[in-house]
Amino acid sequence: MGIFGLVTGFSPAIGPTLSGWILSYYSWQAIFVIVLVAMLINIVISIAVVKNVTTTGPADLDLLSVVLSTFAFGGLLYGFSKAS
């Protein structure tokens, strides 16, 4: 989560600056070429690295979680409906 937060916070700050720098040396079409190349590299790396982890067995039902979630969401709904 920390790395995701860092990227999410850093991207809006560096994106316009980097785009302006690229546009000062190249045409606006270069932005799309760079994004296309980065996308293709990411797809190739993802196909090579990410493994298929799907399981075909039946999923277990956790009844305690179902009951607690029902009371929690029901309580939230009741609280929001009485607050107005």
Describe this structure in words.
With 84 residues, this protein is mostly helical. It has a domain at 1-49. Helices cover 79% and strands 0% of the residues. It has 3 helices and no strands. The mean pLDDT is 90. It comes from Streptococcus dysgalactiae subsp. equisimilis (Streptococcus equisimilis). Keywords: Membrane, Transmembrane, Transmembrane helix, Transport.
Highlighted features:
84 residues; mainly alpha; flat
Short précis:
This protein is mainly α. It contains three helices and no strands.
- Let me know the average pLDDT: 90
Kindly report how far apart the N and C termini lie. Answer: 35 Å
Number of strands: 0
Strand content: under 5%
Helix/sheet category: mainly alpha
Name the shape in a single word: flat
List the secondary-structure elements in sequence, H or E: HHH
Oligomer: single chain
Report the C-alpha radius of gyration, rounded.
Answer: 23 Å
Parts with pLDDT < 50 across at least 5 consecutive residues: none
The DSSP helix count reads 3
Largest sheet: none
Question: Residue share in helices?
Answer: over 70%
